[in-house]
Amino acid sequence: MKYISKKLTVEKISIQNVAKKFGTPAYCYSYTQLKKNINNFKKSFKSFSPLICFAVKSNTNISLIQEIKKFGLGADVVSIGELMIAIKAGVNPKKIVFSGVGKTSTELSYAIDKKILLINAESKSEVNEIDRIAKLKKKKVQIGIRLNPNTDAKTLTQISTGKKENKFGVNDKTFFEIVNYCKSSSNIELKCLSVHIGSQILDYKPYEKMLKVIDKIIKKINFKFEFIDLGGGMGISYNNDNNKLDYKKYNFAIKKFLKKHKSKIIFEPGRSIIANTGSLISKIIYIKKNGKKNFVILDAAMNDLMRPALYGAIHRTLPSIKKNNVLKKNYEFVGPICESTDKFTSLKNFQELKEKDIIVICDVGAYGMSLSSNYNVRPKPVELLIKGSKIKVIRKRQKHKDLI
Which of 110, 142, 233, 317 has a 20 to 30 Å separation from 301 between CA atoms? Predict the structure, then answer.
């Protein structure tokens, strides 16, 4: 996304034209950025050719998953719905990993029937249930066990998943017990040690620490895992300061680990693949001055983009037309929903705005639409894929009649 002749553009199309043709609020995604992200990720770790499973929870649009699949990626799913979407998108079941702490019997049964690569179990009870269903179906099921490595990812508390106080995975004692149980089962084939320590990680050191924990566990248990699933969590720069995870250092740490343990690495990236491909286009309804504050009230709201309300996340916010030598003002960008948390950001020295101006909220491709809701009976926005000078509607705008 860049300014051309002072107009903000995605690929070869101006945001103004997108808003005029498709209305607001609208999500639009750049195909070129998506391709660049995938190729960069693959290139960064090509020395050991990992299986890359896109984290479907970050973006559940079937058209985008179809595009991602074309680059040879698999899918990491956390519900039966996500698994259905991945299969419908044409993802090879042998490239699908099913994660999550609370898989129901129905979900496990469906996954077993679809013969996916791995079900990553997160408790002794879940392993028992997989064993029970597999026995009934007279099938042998490949599973992984998710270890909680008690590693602080140094990220937001709300998206930390690898510390002992988090609900995810099992501790080393339980891990050993499950391994021994699997050895005696004729319906379970233990194939994978799985970990995932959090999201929006910008420092390779927590990953390095995580690998050391895995190394100790494997040495202690003396078990050969065909796969080591390292999860995802790779962060991006949301404020355009180029502060991002050093893939080279992470790659070096993994290669060092693989010299001792000959396993196939699985990655589950979501945000690093899709986040910066997406933008949310919104129109200013009103500009209201309350005391010292200038409120910019947008037609997009927290139901369209939940991250700022949920995590206090901050996204770059840009005008669709850049104006030089104009009055600068301080603005608070908010939505029309009846909640004080329906706020996107506060910005100082922003160019003066007018009602009906178009605003763009950047880097919303991950956990934008997938966290959206119909709160206040608001229809969900249209989703658009932009490829060069072509626009494809990849999800129609909902209508009130769909909801009522």
Answer: 233
**How many residues make up the chain in this entry?**
404
Q: Would the pLDDT of 275 be above 60?
A: yes
Over the stretch 63-85, which tens digit does the pLDDT of each residue have? 999 999 999 999 999 999 999 99
Residue listed under structure tokens 């199309």: 13
Neighbours of 264 (CB within 10 A): 16
Whether residue 183 is found in the same domain as residue 298: no
Long-range CB contacts (within 8 A, 24+) of 170-178: 170/122, 170/123, 170/124, 170/145, 170/146, 172/147, 172/217, 172/220, 174/123, 174/124, 175/145, 175/147, 175/217, 175/221, 176/220, 176/221, 177/124, 178/121, 178/124, 178/127, 178/145
Distance separating the N- and C-terminal Cα atoms of the chain: 36
Domain containing 186 equals: 31-272
Is 359 in the same domain as 316? yes
> String of b and e for 308-321 (b: at least 16 CB within 10 Å)?
bbebebebbbbbbb
What are the structure tokens assigned to 85, written together?
Answer: 């979407």
| Same domain, residue pair 193 and 314 | no
pLDDT of residue 131 exceeding 90, the answer is: yes
Which CATH number is 142's domain given?
Answer: 3.20.20.10
If you ran DSSP here, which 8-state letter would residue 56 be given?
Answer: G
d(CA 30, CA 36): 10
Q: What is the pLDDT of residues 80-125, one digit of tens each?
A: 999 999 999 999 999 999 999 999 999 999 999 999 999 999 999 9
pTM: 0.93
Question: Which residues have a catalytic role annotated?
Answer: 338
Respond yes or no on whether the N-terminal peptide bond of residue 50 is cis (omega within 30° of 0): no
Q: What is the 3-state secondary structure (H, E, C) of 58-123?
A: HCCCHHHHHHHHCCCCEEEECCHHHHHHHHHCCCCHHHEEECCCCCCHHHHHHHHHCCCCEEEECC
What mean pLDDT is reported for the chain?
92
Residue 369 to residues 58, 123, 302, 329, 354, Cα–Cα distance (Å) = 9, 30, 11, 30, 27
Same domain, residue pair 48 and 100:
yes
Closest CA to 63 of 251, 278, 230: 278
Residue 199: its pLDDT value, please?
Answer: 82
Domain count across the chain: 2
